[in-house]
Write a structure and sequence with these properties.
single chain, 348 residues, alpha/beta, Rossmann fold, six-stranded parallel beta sheet, 12 helices, globular, binds thiamine diphosphate, binds magnesium ion
Length: 348
């Protein structure tokens, strides 16, 4: 019997309205999920065409989770999304053409061609770019929450980590400090069942990772990460609780990583039946069915959204391909922050 609360699905349009979303918001989320998947599918093609340096990662299967959480965040909140969380960037307003520019190492990508394809974020949109080391962004997210507390700002920090990363010490340190100081932070564990080729039974011995939250003195919730509305509702509750001074929450979002760790990995070690089982719960398909049943989504609306997303992405790729590669002489610019860049008393 799990200690953490297991979240129920959202039953009706009425219930989701109570949680703060109207029909237009729901259609917007559906569109954002399509854009998220479309960016990664097209990125994969660009990779095969040899246009993307390095490796290439996707978050297929995680669209509901990333879009659900990001939709629940406030405009002034901050987050540290990882390599499976493209939906967070799209929801926060990073324009798709800039993501393609990032993929291709161009000057108009969020890191202006300075970092690997998914190591990106637009700080103006409240996002902090990930570093490779896992889960090194959790202490950073906790630091943001501590800063909000010290400055008495009503802002919340959201920190993402994978279930594999949860085995590392920095995850424990981050959660312990957040619990001790009751910081305004929400931890999102993208539990996609695999850490590269390692299955969950070799990663942790507790029933659910969210069970650990109680040991840190805060609430743990397990949610079906293929259900965008359940994810949204739980993230919204946790974020607003944190904003009101109620301390951290850990949300464990259950999905399956529907592709290999990256394009070089064909995931031969994942049982075929597992993919088949989770394919039946495809997040986009699930939300589409929910919208048809509960929000009267029509064929015309569906076609319109699909066509507009297709055009948006085609235009985005063209624009990104027009973006120049960075000028080599500018290589060291914008890589390190100088005291002048930092607006805190400690750095003056
Ligand atoms: C400290 C550290 N060790 C190893 C790696 C290489 N690595 C990158 S992602 C990854 C798997 C992480 O699994 P999980 O946390 O479950 O996230 P997922 O990739 O499944 O989303 C590994 C081993 C790393 N980035 N950092
Ligand atoms: Mg994983």
């Amino acid at each position: 019997m799990a200690i953490a609360r297991e979240a129920e699905p959202v039953s009706s349009l009425h219930e989701i309205r109570e949680a703060g979303l109207d029909r237009e918001d729901l259609l917007g989320m559906y569109r954002t999920m399509l854009i998220t998947r479309g960016i990664e599918e097209r990125g994969h093609i660009l990779y095969k065409q040899g246009k993307i340096p390095g490796s290439f990662y996707t978050g297929r299967g995680n669209e509901a989770s990333s879009v659900g959480v990001a939709t629940a965040m406030g405009g002034d909140d901050v987050g540290t999304p990882l390599h499976r969380d493209m939906g967070v960037h799209v929801t926060r307003g990073v324009e798709p053409w800039r993501i393609f520019a990032q993929y291709m190492g161009r000057a108009d990508g969020p890191t202006r061609g300075r970092d690997g394809n998914v190591h990106m974020a637009d700080s103006k949109l409240g996002l902090l770019a990930m570093v490779s080391h896992l889960p090194a962004m959790l202490p950073v997210a906790v630091g943001c929450a501590l800063a909000f507390r010290i400055r008495e700002e009503r802002r919340v920090s959201v920190g993402w980590f994978g279930e594999g990363a949860s085995a590392r010490g920095d995850c424990h340190e981050a959660m312990n400090l957040a619990g001790v100081r009751r910081l305004p932070i929400v931890f999102i564990c993208d539990n996609n069942q695999w850490a590269y080729s390692t299955p969950t039974h070799l990663e942790y011995a507790c029933e659910t990772l969210a069970d650990r939250a109680q040991a840190y003195g805060f609430e743990g919730v397990v949610v079906d990460g293929t259900d965008v509305l359940a994810v949204y509702r739980e993230a919204k509750r946790a974020i607003e609780k944190a904003r009101e001074g109620g301390g951290p929450t850990m949300i464990e979002s259950l999905t399956l990583r529907m592709e290999g760790h990256a394009v070089h990995d064909d995931a031969f070690y994942v049982p075929k039946e597992m993919f088949e089982e989770w394919a039946k719960r495809d997040p986009i398909e699930r939300f589409r069915s929910w919208l048809r049943e509960n929000a009267a989504l029509t064929d015309d609306e569906e076609d319109e959204v699909a066509a507009s997303v297709k055009k948006l992405l085609a235009d985005a790729i063209n624009r990104a391909e027009e973006s120049p590669l960075p000028d080599p002489s500018s290589l060291t610019e914008g890589v390190f922050a100088t005291p002048e860049d930092l607006d805190t008393p400690h750095h003056k």
